[in-house]
Every structure is written in structure tokens, then in C-alpha cells.
Write a structure and sequence with these properties.
The chain has 501 residues and is an alpha+beta fold. It has helices spanning 2-12, 17-22, 27-42, 60-72, 78-84, 89-100, 120-124, 128-135, 148-157, 177-181, 183-187, 197-200, 205-209, 250-253, 281-284, 288-294, 308-315, 321-325, 343-346, 408-411, 476-480, and strands spanning 211-214, 231-233, 238-240, 277-279, 297-298, 304-306, 328-329, 332-333, 350-359, 362-371, 385-393, 399-402, 416-422, 436-440, 448-455, 461-469, 492-500. The longest helix has 16 residues, at 27-42. Bound molecules: heme C (6 copies). One heme C (HEC) binds next to helix 16, helix 17, helix 18 and helix 19.
Length: 501
């Protein structure tokens, strides 16, 4: 686990080189300060104690920048915020010189600093199945290092996911994207996402299991706090759905790092659990756990891009997100959390059938679609789209008629379910620049919609298919330059029905 920190130290040397030139720290003065202010929690030589992370072997640049972030409040910590407030940059430099001279602590059992620095690989050693499910989910691919669709937009809106100090072009602020797509990096106000595994992993185990409370995305005083800012988090205690019963016997607790072993240290004090965990069903079993990141997200002009949470709220549905997205299978809450990338999940979204009646020389086909979901279909990212493809075939399977050949939107607009953003003149615009909502033809929560077609032929079969696309056609070539995954942008068949005559 120390490896992450060491890589971080090396990686940031050039970016923060200027800091060390400004203050040549004096390790002797640093030792005095450290003993006075810091040793009680971080240990005399920065070896760390329980939830107080080790400082030994820390890079000077990382140390100074981190202390400045605590002082400015851009990295939030009640303890460190108060402590750093009265200290000067010069004093930071002295302590940096002191702590950096020690060997980094190598101890497999300890959490490397606050919870949001813990990599999923730590959890993997015991929770293999859940790790495997999570690894295949979009939560594990949520950063620009791993998701080519996000990478395309991130590079355009922000810049290089491997560089420190990047800002969001339009706002000139810390990239808001990271609040949701790389919440652990956002907590530290870091934009170099390969600096720590816990950053590169995006929405990893601790990203969710550190969430202890929900503040909401809308501030009482107006404005929004998105993603990780919408939550209260714990820096030292994992949050679980159930917790553990108090009457568990020691034998049952063996090997469970979330419970204290009952052993005492030299001074008779109970040694705490190495990965303390507390039961918090109110949070973990509620939709609020998801809403900080999934409620809504507007672009800089205030136009809503994603609004899954708002959609559910408006529908009045009381079903939690977990009940569909984390079904219990084999006694375990499933962490695959499928959405638009998952055919299995898409197959559950819409009930579709076709009623056919004869109509003189031809037939009349009613394509009935019932959205099973308490959110829109498709929901989420604004380039998701669905085509309703209707085909009439003869007994040999020859196509007699179809509602569109190539372009659903041009040839049969009502068969195209999508969310189009627009500019001032109402012309289609991309998410970052849009100033208003253009067309929203998606199925509303629980909507039943019927499309009726007059087919001028006598088919043996009328077939209807729903074809789901992650992005608009125009975006596909640029995304394919960023990935080898041939399947990624292929249309997914989410519903299929054949009416035989
Ligand atoms: C009362 C206990 C306490 C004291 C005293 C304290 N710290 Fe901390 N420190 C913490 C905790 C807890 C964290 C983890 C905070 C978080 O990130 O949420 C922390 C985090 C840090 C970090 C960030 C480490 C990392 O890996 O990112 C640095 C640097 C740090 N402390 C330096 C100091 C220095 C220097 C002093 C003395 C001036 C000091 N601390 C005194 C408790 C303490
Ligand atoms: C997107 C948020 C999220 C992420 C990411 C996440 N979890 Fe969970 N996890 C939850 C929620 C919510 C529950 C509670 C589900 C329930 O009880 O209905 C849960 C439950 C669990 C449980 C209890 C399982 C059971 O059914 O008893 C374990 C163990 C667990 N998570 C481990 C992990 C590990 C390990 C990772 C990373 C590989 C991880 N989680 C990633 C949200 C998350
Ligand atoms: C050394 C083994 C080990 C490691 C490492 C480990 N766990 Fe666990 N965890 C357990 C055991 C044992 C249980 C209890 C039995 C079970 O639920 O599987 C448990 C249970 C849990 C639960 C369910 C408790 C509840 O109240 O719902 C959650 C959540 C959880 N672990 C999350 C994590 C996360 C997140 C990590 C990584 C930061 C992690 N665990 C690392 C062994 C481990
Ligand atoms: C810390 C922020 C965060 C939290 C908390 C969170 N998510 Fe996500 N989720 C994301 C991000 C970011 C993505 C998109 C990753 C991408 O496509 O680049 C995502 C993707 C998804 C997807 C997949 C979409 C697709 O394209 O296939 C589903 C489904 C989902 N989340 C459901 C949930 C549920 C259910 C919860 C609560 C149990 C939850 N999320 C909690 C940030 C979060
Ligand atoms: C009744 C079951 C159900 C409930 C409840 C539900 N979803 Fe979904 N969700 C689905 C299905 C099925 C899909 C796939 C179809 C689609 O993309 O619209 C989906 C898709 C998604 C996607 C994928 C969007 C994308 O861009 O790929 C996200 C994100 C999502 N849901 C989040 C949530 C959140 C957050 C909640 C709770 C506030 C929630 N869902 C509640 C069934 C459900
Ligand atoms: C409030 C949280 C939040 C913020 C802030 C945010 N996103 Fe997202 N983003 C999500 C979620 C959640 C998803 C996936 C689920 C969905 O479609 O709703 C997503 C999906 C995406 C996708 C589609 C990914 C795919 O695999 O199809 C792109 C592209 C994207 N976001 C780009 C960005 C960029 C660029 C920024 C910053 C300018 C940003 N996002 C800011 C939450 C957020």
C-alpha cells in the first residue's frame, strides 16, 4: 500500500518543484514543531496511529501542498483544518524536511491514511466476489483513465487526467467532474488521477462505504453541491448496511478486520479494529446513497444534463435504487450496478408488444411500450438514445416494409427516443454549450406509449425492436480512436417482439 504514496511523491515532484525552492526547510526546527503539535496523533517519527495516517517518508511537496489545502479548507478535515490554521508556510517547510527523511512505514495491516485513500485491492483480498462485480461496473471505469466516452468529454472540457493543477475550462475552477467521476481525488483537490490507486479507481469501495450522511445537492442558500460534496463522510470508519451484532462470539470474529480482536496494548487499551466498520442502514439502504452523484447535473448555463434523481422524485415512486440496481443474489447485494452499458439491465426496462389488425389492403400495427422504471428511459447521460425499429416480413423472412432505413430521427422522428439539448436558436447543441432543452422524446417514468403504423402490405410477421445507443452517431468515430473495444458503441437490442399473422 505504501507504493501508491511513493509513486505519488515521485509523480508530483516536477509539478510542485517551486514549493521547495521557496522554503528550504530545516529538519531540526521541524522536529521541534512536530513534537509539539503532531506527535500525539501521527507518532513521534510520523509512523502513524490508527486513523491518523503515517507521515514518515512523505514527499516534501505533497506535505506542503496538503497542509496548505487543510489551512485553506479545500481539503476538509475538522482536526487538520483547525491545526494548520495557525501555522505558516515556513513552518510547513521545516516539518516537511523532518518527516520526509524517514523510511516510509511498511505495514500491510494499516489503512494508509484516511479512508478515501484505501484502494479496492485491499478489500479484494477478502471480498473477491463483490470486487469482481464492481470491477466490471461503470463505477470502476468512471474516470477518464478508464472510460473512453468520459475521456473524450473530459479532455475537451478540462484536460489531461494525468496532470496536476488542471481546471475546468469554462469555470476556471477545480474540475467539478471529479466530484462524481473520481470522488477520492476530489476530496484531496488533486487532478493527477494516476497519483493514487484510490483516485484512478473512481467510484471505488470506499467512495460509497465512507458515506455516513446526506446533505442534499441543493444548498439551502441556493446553488448546488454535487457528488462527494453532497455527503457527510467518515475518514476512519467504513459504513455498512447492517453492522455486526454485539453478541457475536470471539470465534466468529476471527479474521474479521472490521471488529476489534479484543486484545489490549502494553498500556491496557483495547486495540481498535484495523478496518473499523459501523452499521448505517439508514444511509446504505436509501436512494440518498446514490443521489449525491445521480440526482442531477446542469452544465455551466444551468441546463440539466442528467437528472435521474429528479425524474424519480417527480414520479412519486418510493422504490429505492438499490432494489433494482443491487438485487440480492447468492445472499449478497450485487455490485455490478448495470445501466446503459449492460444488456441484461436494459432488457428489464421496457415491456413491449405489437397488436396487429387488418386494414383494407394492408395492416395496422400498434407498437405498445410500457416503461417499467421510475426514471425516464433512457435516463442518464444526455447522448443515450433508443430507436424503435418496426419491420414487416413475409413468410420467407423478406423485408416488405420498415419504418426507417438508416436515420430514425429523419425518416420517422417519433421512433427516436432521446434528449436533445439546444442553443439559443433552438439548433442542436452539445452538453457543454447548450443553453436550453431542445427535444425530450424519452419515455416518462412508467409511461405507456403506443406508436401506430399503417403498413401497406400483407406481412406474415410484424417485428418491433428497441435499439439502445450509448452515444449519438456523430460522436462515435472520435470515441473509437480512444478504445479497442469494438462492441462498446454497437447498438444494444433491449426489447424484441414478433406478432405473427
Ligand atoms: C488530533 C489528531 C491529529 C493531530 C494532532 C495532527 N493530525 Fe494530521 N491528521 C489527522 C487525521 C485524522 C488525518 C486524516 C484527515 C483526513 O484526511 O480526513 C490527518 C492528516 C494529515 C495529513 C495528510 C496525510 C495524507 O496522507 O494525505 C498531513 C500531512 C498531516 N495530517 C500533518 C499533520 C501535522 C504536520 C500535524 C502537526 C502540525 C498534524 N497533522 C497534527 C490527525 C491529526
Ligand atoms: C456505488 C456504491 C458502492 C460501491 C462502489 C461499493 N459498494 Fe458495497 N454496498 C453498497 C450498498 C448500497 C450496500 C448495501 C446493499 C444492501 O444491503 O441493500 C453495499 C453492501 C456491501 C457489502 C455487504 C454485502 C451483503 O449483501 O451483505 C459488502 C461486503 C460490500 N458492500 C463491499 C464492497 C466492496 C468490497 C466494494 C468494492 C469492490 C464495494 N462494496 C463497492 C454500495 C457500494
Ligand atoms: C481481511 C479480510 C477483509 C478485508 C481486507 C475487508 N473485509 Fe469487509 N468483511 C470481512 C468479513 C469477514 C466480513 C463479515 C462477513 C461478510 O459479510 O462477508 C466483512 C463484512 C463487510 C461489510 C458488511 C458489513 C455490514 O455491516 O453490512 C462491508 C460493507 C465490508 N465488509 C466492506 C469492506 C470494504 C469496503 C473493505 C475494503 C476497504 C473491506 N471490507 C475489507 C472481511 C474483510
Ligand atoms: C460518488 C459518486 C457516485 C455514487 C455515490 C454512485 N454513483 Fe453510480 N455512477 C457514478 C458515475 C460517475 C458513473 C458513470 C461512470 C461512467 O460512465 O463514466 C456511475 C454509473 C452508474 C451506473 C451505470 C450507468 C451506465 O452507463 O451503465 C448505474 C446503474 C449507477 N451508477 C447506479 C448507482 C446506484 C444505484 C448508486 C447507489 C447505490 C450509485 N450509482 C452511487 C457515480 C456515483
Ligand atoms: C424499477 C427498477 C429501477 C429503479 C427503482 C431504478 N432504476 Fe435505474 N435503471 C433501471 C433499468 C432497467 C435501467 C436500464 C434502462 C435505462 O438506461 O433507462 C436503468 C438505468 C439507470 C442508469 C443508467 C443510465 C445510463 O446512462 O446508462 C442510471 C444511472 C440509473 N438507472 C440510476 C438509478 C438511480 C440513481 C436510481 C434511484 C434514484 C434508480 N436508477 C432506480 C431500473 C431501475
Ligand atoms: C453530479 C455528478 C456528476 C458530475 C459533476 C459530472 N458527471 Fe458525468 N456522469 C455522472 C453520472 C452519474 C454518469 C453516468 C450515469 C448516467 O448516465 O447518469 C455520468 C456520465 C458521463 C458521461 C457518459 C459516460 C459513458 O460511459 O457513457 C460523460 C461523457 C460524462 N459523464 C462527462 C462528464 C464531464 C466531462 C464532467 C465535467 C465537466 C462530468 N461528467 C461531471 C455524474 C456526473
Amino acid at each position: 500500500m505504501r507504493k501508491g504514496t511513493l509513486i505519488l511523491a515521485a509523480g508530483l515532484l516536477c509539478a510542485w518543484g517551486a514549493v521547495s525552492q521557496a522554503w528550504a526547510g530545516d529538519a531540526v526546527k521541524g522536529e521541534e514543531l512536530a513534537n509539539t503539535y503532531c506527535a500525539a496523533c501521527h507518532g513521534p517519527q510520523g509512523e502513524g496511529m490508527q486513523a491518523n495516517p503515517p507521515l514518515a517518508g512523505i514527499s516534501e511537496e505533497y506535505f506542503v501542498k496538503t497542509m496548505q489545502a487543510f489551512r485553506a479548507g479545500t481539503r476538509q478535515s475538522a482536526t487538520m483544518g483547525a491545526l494548520s490554521g495557525s501555522l505558516t508556510d515556513e513552518q510547513f517547510a521545516h516539518m516537511a524536511a523532518y518527516y520526509s527523511q524517514f523510511e516510509a512505514v511498511a505495514d500491510e495491516f494499516r489503512i494508509d491514511g484516511p479512508l478515501h485513500h484505501v484502494s479496492a485491492s485491499v478489500c479484494k483480498s477478502c471480498h473477491e466476489d463483490i470486487f469482481a462485480q464492481w470491477s466490471g461496473s461503470m463505477h470502476a471505469q468512471s474516470t477518464a483513465l478508464r472510460d473512453p466516452i468520459h475521456e473524450l468529454m473530459y479532455r475537451q472540457e478540462v484536460g489531461d487526467p494525468r496532470a496536476e493543477g488542471e481546471v475546468h475550462n469554462r469555470s476556471q475552477r477545480f474540475p467539478v467532474c471529479l466530484n462524481c467521476h473520481a470522488p477520492n481525488a476530489a476530496k484531496d483537490q488533486v487532478t493527477k488521477l494516476d497519483a493514487k490507486d484510490a483516485y484512478a479507481e473512481g467510484v471505488n469501495c470506499v467512495a460509497c462505504h465512507q458515506i455516513s450522511g446526506y446533505k442534499g445537492v441543493r444548498r439551502a442558500e441556493g446553488g448546488l453541491r454535487l457528488g462527494i460534496l453532497a455527503y457527510e463522510t467518515s475518514s476512519d470508519t467504513l459504513q455498512g448496511a447492517t453492522g455486526f451484532p454485539f453478541d457475536k462470539t470471539r470465534a466468529e470474529q476471527q479474521g474479521n478486520p472490521h471488529l476489534p480482536t479484543g486484545e489490549l496494548d502494553t498500556f491496557g487499551v483495547v486495540i481498535p479494529a484495523s478496518l473499523p466498520l459501523q452499521g448505517n442502514p439508514r444511509m446504505l439502504r436509501s436512494s440518498e446513497l446514490c443521489l449525491g452523484c445521480h440526482h442531477l447535473r446542469p452544465n455551466p448555463q444551468g441546463v440539466p444534463l442528467c437528472a435521474t434523481g429528479d425524474e424519480i422524485e417527480a414520479s412519486g415512486s418510493q422504490v429505492t435504487c438499490q432494489s433494482c440496481h443491487m438485487p440480492i443474489a447468492n445472499g449478497m447485494a450485487n455490485h455490478s450496478m448495470g445501466g446503459g452499458h449492460s444488456v441484461a439491465m436494459l432488457n428489464r426496462a421496457v415491456k413491449m408488444f405489437v397488436d396487429v389488425e387488418s386494414n383494407g389492403e394492408g395492416v395496422m400495427a400498434h407498437v405498445v411500450m410500457e416503461n417499467q422504471l421510475p426514471h425516464k428511459m433512457p435516463t442518464g447521460a444526455p447522448f443515450r438514445n433508443v430507436q424503435v425499429k418496426v419491420t414487416a416480413l413475409d413468410a420467407d423472412g423478406n423485408v416488405l416494409w420498415t419504418n426507417f432505413e438508416k436515420h430514425a430521427q429523419k425518416e420517422d422522428p417519433r421512433s427516436y427516443l432521446f434528449y436533445q439539448l439546444a442553443d439559443d436558436e433552438g439548433k442542436p447543441a452539445m452538453p457543454p454549450t447548450a443553453t436550453q432543452v431542445g427535444i425530450d422524446s424519452r419515455l416518462e417514468p412508467h409511461e405507456r406509449r403506443v406508436l401506430t403504423y399503417e403498413i401497406p402490405a400483407q406481412p406474415a410477421v410484424v417485428r418491433a425492436e428497441l435499439l439502445y445507443n450509448l452515444v449519438f452517431e456523430g460522436m462515435k468515430p472520435r470515441i473509437m480512436e480512444l478504445t479497442d473495444d469494438e462492441e462498446l458503441l454497437q447498438p444494444r437490442r433491449m426489447a424484441f417482439y414478433e406478432a405473427r399473422l
